[in-house]
Amino acid sequence: MTRSSSVLKRELFAGNEVTIRNADFMLRTAIYPGSFDPVTNGHIDIIERGFKLFDRIIVAILHNPAKKYLFSVDERMTLLRESLKKYPDIEIEAFDGLLVDYAVQKNAQAILRGMRAVSDFEYEFQMALMNRRLNRNVQTVFLMTGLRWIFTSSSIIKEAACFGGNINGMVPPAVNQKLKEKFGR
Ligand code: COA
């Protein structure tokens, strides 16, 4: 799916097709930040749904100081690129610093996050409030995770893969392959 930079989309207004161009209004840009260690189908689901709400999505690999990573930033970036190759307009970047600073640098109005079970709520609430305190102009938008992905996470998938568990359908094929290589299977 591509979005031309001049013609953004065609929509129906009062039954007539209207062409909306970039210059007609400000692009609604969202950053979808995360560790993506590695990207899972749960993340892809949020990205695909977010892309229906925003004109521009930037998937940003950021550093969470509380985590130890299995994949390097370069590996995570390559896996994201491969997994999102049918969406060439979705940007993928890495950033080392404050998320809200990055959002400002990218002219993004929103931070997109997926919300899984109730257990996510406290952490996400804390992070959203802190980000708002740091910059009131950047809004956090939550999408409810698809039911299929409600109990998945990168860690649980890595653990299953490490012990030879079948993770088909939970991660994009490139990630499945890379996990097999990492764990020597
Ligand atoms: N489906 C399935 N799993 C999902 C998911 C979905 N839709 N959305 C998130 N997850 C999982 C991830 O796989 C991840 O699992 P893991 O903990 O087992 O790795 C977990 O939910 C949350 O990870 P993620 O969304 O990648 O966030 P994070 O906590 O790793 O990273 C940052 C949070 C990077 C966005 C945050 O630390 C940050 O903003 N860092 C920059 C510094 C900064 O600005 N800090 C101040 C913020 S207050």
Give an overview of the whole structure.
With 185 residues, this protein is of the alpha/beta class. A hairpin with a 2-residue loop joins strand 1 and strand 2. The longest helix is centred in the C-terminal third of the chain and has 17 residues. The protein is globular and about 55 Å long. It has a domain of 125 residues: Rossmann fold (3-Layer(aba) Sandwich). The protein has six helices and seven strands. The structure holds coenzyme A. The site of coenzyme A has 26 residues, from strand 3, helix 1, helix 4 and helix 5.
Spell out the key features of this protein.
6 helices, Rossmann fold, alpha/beta, binds coenzyme A, 185 residues, 7 strands
| Model regions low in confidence, pLDDT < 50 over at least 5 residues | none
| Straight-line N-to-C gap | 34 Å
If helices are DSSP runs of H or I spanning 4 or more residues, what is the number of helices? 6
Described by the principal axes of the CA atoms, the overall outline is globular
Bound molecules: coenzyme A
For the biggest sheet, the summary is: 5 strands, parallel
- The SSE order reads EEEHEHEHEHEHH
Task: Return the CATH architecture of the domain at 26-150.
Answer: 3-Layer(aba) Sandwich
Q: How many E strands?
A: 7
CATH superfamily of the domain at 26-150: HUPs
Overall pLDDT: 90
Quote the CATH topology of the domain at 26-150: Rossmann fold
Using only C-alpha atoms, the radius of gyration works out to: 17 Å
Structural class: alpha/beta
CATH class of the domain at 26-150: Alpha Beta
Range of strand content? 15-25%
Largest sheet strand order: 5-4-3-6-7
